[in-house]
Amino acid sequence: MTDGEAAASPAENPEAAESSAGNPQAAGSRAGNLRAASAGTSQPTGAVPVGNPGKSPVWVKSERQRRREAELRARGRRSTSVATASTIVALVALVAGITASPGWPRVRETFFSPKAFVEALPDVLSGFLLNIKIFLIAEVFILAVGLLVALVRSLRAPVFFPLRALAVLYTDLFRGIPTILLIYLVGFGVPALRLQGTPSDPVTLGIIALVLSYGAYVAEVFRAGIESVHPSQRAAARSLALTHGQTMRYVVLPQAVRNVIPPLLNDFVSLQKDSSLVSVLGPLEAVRQAQIHVASSFNYTPYLVAALLFILLTVPMARFTDHLSARARRRQTGGGTA
Amino acid sequence: MSLLKVEGVWKHYHGLSVLRGIDLEVAPHEVVCLIGASGSGKSTLLRCVNLLETIDDGAIYLDGAEITDVRTDADDVRRRIGMVFQAYNLFPHMTVLDNITLAPRKVHGVRAEEAEARARELLERFGLADKAGEYPDRLSGGQQQRVAVIRAVATNPRLLLLDEVTSALDPTLVTEVLGVIRELKEAGMTMILATHEMGFARDIADTVCFLEGGVLLESGPPEQIFSDPEHPRTRAFLQRVLEARRM
Ligand SMILES: Nc1ncnc2c1ncn2[C@@H]1O[C@H](COP(=O)(O)OP(=O)(O)OP(=O)(O)O)[C@@H](O)[C@H]1O
Ligand SMILES: [Mg+2]
Fold first, then answer.
1. Which residues does chain A have within 8 Å of residue B176's beta carbon, measured at their own beta carbons?
2. Is the pTM higher than 0.80?
3. Residue ranges making up the domain that contains B20
4. Which of A56, A116, B153, B181 is the most buried (most CB within 10 A)?
5. Could you tell me which CATH number the domain at A114-332 has?
6. What residues have a C-beta under 5 A from ligand 2, the ion?
7. CA atoms within 13 A on the CB side of B239
8. Structurally, how many domains does chain B consist of?
């Protein structure tokens, strides 16, 4: 495609004039009219120089606007203090209610023992690092499996029927099996096969089970995202001669992924917790470590330690999800930058 | 030789015949306007020409070669035909510049800098130079449609299909989009437009085609169709349009 071929390049003008001259219509005067007409309409089309510095008035914030903004700021401060006060009142009431209950001294001793807390912390924390490792590795594979399955389900050509059927079977099956059951099945079933090359390490097996289970969920999330992209977008892409693959890659997927980031992160919050299910296979992750401490000390505080660690991990993730959804909403309603 | 030839094309949707034996020829540099009531099949015809729909009978030829042959590569045909839709045209996650350069780069294998230079040149020409880095949702409807037209011509198509590109727009924005189309005509672009803007059709068309119920009832130069239509149904349609305008 050279410039001379340019669809709308003036170089083709003579030819155009020639062909319209060949037309039975009064070509000369028509062309003249057209040019005049287009010259007339070219004004709104032309870029209007923004801000002629000589003429355009300069905005100086008025006294009224200044007062309005001050009032808004004051109102904002007031609502923050109201929120803080009511939160404190609610918390105090809750704590007072719990500590006043008859069983409280006993509960405090078995669940909130500072000594047991300090004792269990190092082991539970080191176990928790294994949870994080499981979570991070599983997450990468889950995203890959989910995306792949969703893409396979989006293929329309009849040749791909077996693949598509397989993808449907996979999502139906693995979303149906409870994760803990799947961990048992993979964790004890696969090694029992005694096949060459199959993993026997419980952590690896646990990760495989998590990937199988969550991959099915995430595939559905991706599929919903792909289907949420307006069909006209696909038509527009295809009309530009983009292939199915290119349309997916450059037009549909970028929009789909953006739409599904909040639900995806939600699934990952859930995955962080479920990484503890791998404990049934024996690896010393946080919950397992806590269990060991509980068994030896008859104090439940180590469980609290594990719970706190999980919360510390999931809360930032949840806030981040909220932040992303809020930003997406703002964007849709027109505000904010793109 | 005609650039596009539509020969006895039929299209059904669930037993309903939407196109019933359409015949149409478009010469190079010719501008054809399709007019007709809502549901008469204008969009369907354009979508068939762009192979977004498969036809149920007949044939369509582009540059003398049949494109409705089962063995034709639809993407190869679409590479030579540009199309602009009524709305939802631009890719919202890309800047104006990326929207325009996507097909040249990914489909036509043009180098990025080259595609960008050409896109900027087109934007400049149609008064949108300052919008290159903007995302579609920050443009007015008229600006968006102008970008959509630019995107469609950025690959130098042989033929441009425009489907009611102004009907989603505020009347005040219509003129700027029509201005772009007018300029393309002057540059020699071959176009088929489905439109409800009779005044514009009269002004820009070399040939006006009147469709009703999937049949191409009448076609001819705009002077004739608009002032002296042969078919009583054409007359009735134009009468209705006129009355609607007056209200
Ligand atoms: N995908 C589809 N499935 C079923 N029927 C369809 C489909 N697309 C179009 N039709 C029908 O085909 C007929 C022609 O539609 P088409 O969109 O071509 O009309 P049009 O002339 O473009 O109308 P308008 O001026 O309102 O855009 C209509 O009766 C419509 O209901
Ligand atoms: Mg239509």
1. 41, 44-45
2. no
3. 4-246
4. B181
5. 1.10.3720.10
6. B 43
7. 8
8. 1
